[in-house]
Design a protein that fits this description.
13 strands; about 290 residues; globular; Rossmann fold; alpha/beta
């Protein structure tokens, strides 16, 4: 099976790339010329790599018989907050990829989405608009599979993400760390479990209808404050951190969703269940970081 994977140098994309190669799939990986390949350097010789900003996507489909497209490209708007940039990455690029997938009669287009409500920010809206187009185009032979992921975390994530930022602050014994009240609940899901879910989806792809949607999480949510306290507890089991956590010093963003929890019932019917507890996930991150 040949898989075209976008966002191959990203957090999720890099984990999927390694899993696909290890499972014996032929992988065509897309990245930017400016992408940092540190996460996948050991796998670059095991896949075909293209710089998406220097090649016409259509050429790839003309050169290879692509069976599946897995789209993980994401612009959260953290580094470049311009709406046009967010739309270019999350919507326009995805739509071009979707069109070429249909034209090439690819078996399935698997898209990575978010559980955030569509109007909460530009990132979520652009993601939702791509899904609108997937539904609209689902009358074609290419199957559309949308994957909505809750709060993903794990070793090797971007340092500007909340969990990695917090761990860094705690390890440096920053005097005080300002946070929200932390009563908002999130469904924290470890990266290894997410990769396992994608593998299950691929194995069951032939049984899917024209459009399918799945949510990935543990199926349970906990307060962010509780998650933070678990990190502190684990750090203190080896080395005391003296940072003061100032819960409630930062206001919530507008339209904050106070309880996000994935419905994993459809994935469980396919035989998938999360295996890594929050405690074990935190230990894995801290162990790898040391």
């Amino acid at each position: 099976m040949t898989i075209l994977l976008t966002g191959a140098t990203g957090f999720l994309g890099s984990y999927l790339l390694k899993a696909f190669v290890d499972n014996g799939y032929k992988v065509i990986a897309l990245k930017r010329t400016t992408s940092n390949t540190d996460r996948i350097d050991n796998y670059l010789n095991d896949c075909v790599v293209y710089d998406v900003d220097t090649i016409n996507i259509k050429t790839i489909f003309e050169t290879y018989n692509v069976d599946l497209v897995v789209n993980t490209v994401t612009n959260y708007g953290r580094k470049d907050n311009s709406i046009s940039s967010i739309i270019d990455t999350n919507l326009i690029f995805g739509l071009k990829l979707l069109e070429e997938s249909i034209n090439a009669n690819v078996k399935a287009f698997i898209n990575t989405d978010t559980l955030l409500e569509r109007n909460i920010n530009a990132y979520a809206l652009a993601k939702a608009q791509l899904v609108d187009w997937m539904v609209f185009l689902s009358t074609h032979s290419t199957k559309m599979v949308n994957v909505k992921i809750e709060h993903m975390y794990g070793f090797g994530d971007d340092e500007n993400k909340f969990i990695y930022w917090l761990i860094k602050q705690l390890k440096q014994n920053v005097e005080k760390i300002d946070l929200t009240s932390g009563i908002q609940k999130r469904d924290f899901i470890y990266i290894d479990d997410i990769v396992a879910a994608y593998e299950v989806l691929i194995k069951n792809i032939d049984s899917f209808s024209n459009y399918e949607e799945f949510e990935i999480g543990t199926g349970n949510s906990i307060a962010v404050k509780e998650f933070v306290e678990k990190i502190v507890e684990e750090l203190n089991s080896n080395k005391t951190t003296v940072s003061k956590l100032n819960f409630g010093m930062i206001a919530y963003r507008a339209n904050e969703n106070m309880n996000m929890q994935a419905d994993i019932s459809r994935l469980k019917k396919l035989g998938w269940e999360p295996q890594i507890s929050i405690e074990d996930g935190i230990k894995k991150i801290l162990r790898e970081e040391n």
